[in-house]
Amino acid sequence: MIFDLELNNVGKVYDNGTPAVIDFNLSVSKGEFIAFLGPSGCGKTTTLRMIAGFESISSGEMLIKGKRMNDIRPEHRPTSMIFQSYALFPHMTVRRNVGYGLDVKGMAKAERDAKVDRILATLGLEDIAEKKPDRLSGGQRQRIALARGLVVEPDILLLDEPLGALDANLRKAIQNELKLLQKTLGVTFVFVTHAQSEALALSDRIVVMNQGKVEQISPPHQLYTRPNTAFVAQFIGNNTIFQGEVDGASDDRMLVSTPLGQLSGRPNGTLSARSRVNVVIPAEAIEVHPAARVSREQIAHTVGGNVVGASVRRFDVVGHVSHLTAALADGRTVSLEAHVDKYQPDAFPVGADILLSWQPGEATVIPA
Amino acid sequence: MNASGMKLSLGAYTALFLVFLYGPLVVLAILSFQTGPEGGPQFPIIEWSTYWYKHLFGLTPPSRIAPLPIEQALVRSLGLAVMTMIVSTVLGVTAAQAFRRKFRGSGVVFYLIVLGMMVPGVLVGLGMALVAKTLGIDRHWWSTAFVLHVVYTFPFAFLVMLAIFNRFDPSMEEASWSLGVTPARTFRKVTFPLIFPGVLSAMLFAFTLSYDEFSRTLFASGRDLTLPLAIYGTFSVEVHPNVFAFGVLTTLFSFALLGTYAALMMLSVRRAKRIAIQEEA
After folding, report:
1. Which of A249, A338, B232, B257 has the fewest CB atoms within 10 Å distance of its CB?
2. What is the per-residue pLDDT across A99-149, written as a single tens digit (0 to 9) for each?
3. Does B177 touch chain A (CB under 8 A)?
4. Are residues B269 and B152 in the same domain?
5. Tens digit of each residue's pLDDT (9 = 90 or more) over A173-218
6. How far off is chain A from B184, nearest CA to CA, in Å?
7. What gap in Å lies between CA B172 and CA B180, rounded to an integer?
8. In A, which residues are within 8 Å of B271 by CB distance?
9. Which domains does chain A have, with CATH numbers?
10. Can you give A240-260 as a three-state secondary structure string?
């Protein structure tokens, strides 16, 4: 099978010797929407720029549709890049901007104009086609950049934080448009972002990066429910992590002794007896019980012993959502939220003792 | 001090500044309308006349005051300034383009370039004269002096372009490459139109600096004089208001140059718009 994009042990070392990307491996099928997610400086943009050809590849191999691209100049790669700053040409009208990439393709004028018209219509830009980009709004400029990048029909569209400069509402709207556009056109998208909500909402698979290394490549849901590493568990979602030591295993459960008692969860990765591990519990999996109404023993057997004591630190109701901050015995806090019908204000006065429980299947045990 | 007092004193300061800046020019302009040929380069004005302007163009009856020997010098100076402007601007743009990326020894090369505008002109001129003599090269305004003019004005063009490139968003060029356009075409279609206002400024710098360059030219230009040298030469004999009349005309020429610069600037801003309209038609 030929992938649209293959990165085999790709590495980047800057001239001063600092490694930016280490041993990056990824295969992308046609039409996939891939997100590179990570904190700033994790190497995600550098990787994208290596794919585009703006940065040289120090080691490893990069292939597009089976062809080695390492030494091919950017203008000869079947990729097109959308920049966070949009990088629109201020001295050209919207139409000239969009048609710019077609000018060098040796295409008949009529065909070129037809293509430009079609993409302008697809993105709803007909009305502003003769305007200069600097007079237009962020959302419009974003769409012009997309039109300009897509009109040359790249195999892979590279997007460098394309929504970063937009305000929250617009970002949401363009997110949906982007996803729809990608599905309609069937073009492979590689998207760089530091906003996990964006990555989770848009992509088929997410590559989580940290300090130049790939931490995990998974579909969004799996990333959320089955993190591979402590970094992913901390970076994605709202997880509570307990450190402990492997006690033993039963069925597909791993028993872990922690300072807060013995907990159980599904193992992820190879874990040997007595090894140091992390138990990762997503906030969504946690049930809260007022200690005044139920005892630990009453619930412990229904959740495989996954009960820890806590107290209410804060309780706020915003509209129909209750926000509960629970303080654990070790001083850490856990933020939880649920519908106000479920967390009723009078059941959780500040300072009250509570019990937190979760099903073993919802917790993931990973190597520390 | 209260706000209005502050405003007043700043206004007075600005007025004083302008008087010092343009005062000499105004005095020069007034005296250029002195009557001739008996009127001298001092107040009072005996009678208002345009005698010295006519004298400049040889339209007055012969008198004991010789016409300014500037005709050929003016042509030479203009030619030299245009040559210098072209070469320095091209060098400035390409050198600044090279400096957008760090390269080995870029710091040293930077200071070597900038040195050209820092070193005292008299010394460089003298040095050039000595080198030319040693090597047996004839000194001319279009050879030895021209080289020195480029060495002097190139750093200005370079620094102007460096500042322009500093504010230039390189992702604009990357966007162009990623759309399949070669670097050469990208430079023509994207980079150059966007840095064009800077190129105009660099040209203006190079032209004006070369046009009234004196100290370097003095030793390096050989027998044929450039305009600043020719004018200086007339001072050593006797000063007549015809020099002032010429000064006024030169200043008008400079203003015309600035006007052209401003017009070109405005044009470069509007050009893209016009292209769009033409394509529409």
Report:
1. B232
2. 999 988 878 889 999 999 999 998 889 999 999 998 888 889 999 999 999
3. yes
4. no
5. 888 888 988 998 899 999 999 888 889 889 999 999 999 999 999 9
6. 11
7. 13
8. 91
9. 5-225 (3.40.50.300), 238-367 (2.40.50.100)
10. EEEEEEEEEEECCEEEEEECC
pLDDT for B17: 95
Beta carbons within 8 Å of B149's beta carbon, 6+ residues apart: B80, B84, B88, B209, B210, B213, B216, B217
Q: Is the Cβ–Cβ distance between B113 and B158 less than 8 Å?
A: yes
Residues present in chain B in total: 281
Q: Are residues B96 and B228 in the same domain?
A: yes
Q: Is A93 on the interface with B (CB under 8 A)?
A: yes
Contacts of A132 in chain B (CB under 8 A): 272-273
Please give the average per-residue pLDDT across B78-89, as a whole number: 95
Cα distance between residue A220 and residue A200, in whole Å: 5
Question: Which domain covers residue B231, as residue numbers?
Answer: 71-239
Q: For position B213, which CATH number holds?
A: 1.10.3720.10
B32: pLDDT strictly greater than 90: no
Residues of chain B neighbouring A90 (CB-CB closer than 8 A): 194
- Closest CB to B276: pick one of A96, A103, A105: A96
- Are B97 and B200 members of one domain? yes
What is the phi/psi pair of residue A254, to 5°? -110, 130
Averaged over A28-52, what is the pLDDT? 94
Distances (CA, A) of B268 to A196, B167, B208, B272: 44, 18, 21, 7
In chain B, the number of structural domains is 2
Closest among B162, B149, B182 to B95, alpha carbons compared: B162
> Do residues B152 and B221 both lie within one domain?
yes
* B133 shares its domain with B172: yes
Would you say residue A231 has pLDDT above 80?
Answer: yes
